[in-house]
Design goal:
97 residues, mainly beta, 10 Kd Chaperonin, Protein Cpn10, Chain O, 6-stranded antiparallel sheet, globular
């Protein structure tokens, strides 16, 4: 990856979800502008806040899709990432957002 670009593999969809009230939402239901989680596979040399192996939150509709060895991946700028969730043992334990 070059400059501030990040290569992300989308996390597989969980299928149907359950709302906090107990209502089952099927996987085929349309949800307006839903953000997605993905795993970072590569970063450019100008990327400062994300590293390979991090889990990131982003809007998949605004990104460029590429196919690598038959699997779909997304290429985006670092600034398009909304949040990073990763376990970093040097800062303690747990999941950080």
């Amino acid at each position: 990856m070059l400059q501030d670009r990040v290569l992300v593999k989308l996390s597989p969809e969980e299928g149907e979800r359950r709302s906090s009230g107990g209502i089952v939402i099927p996987a085929t239901a349309q949800v307006a502008r839903r953000l997605a989680w993905g795993d970072v596979l590569g970063v450019g040399n100008s990327v400062r806040n994300v590293k390979t192996g991090d889990r990131v939150l982003f809007n998949p509709d605004d990104q460029h899709e590429v196919e690598i060895q038959g699997e779909g991946h997304l290429v985006m700028r670092e600034r398009d990432i909304h949040a990073v969730a990763t376990e970093r043992s040097e800062h303690g334990t747990g999941l950080y957002l």
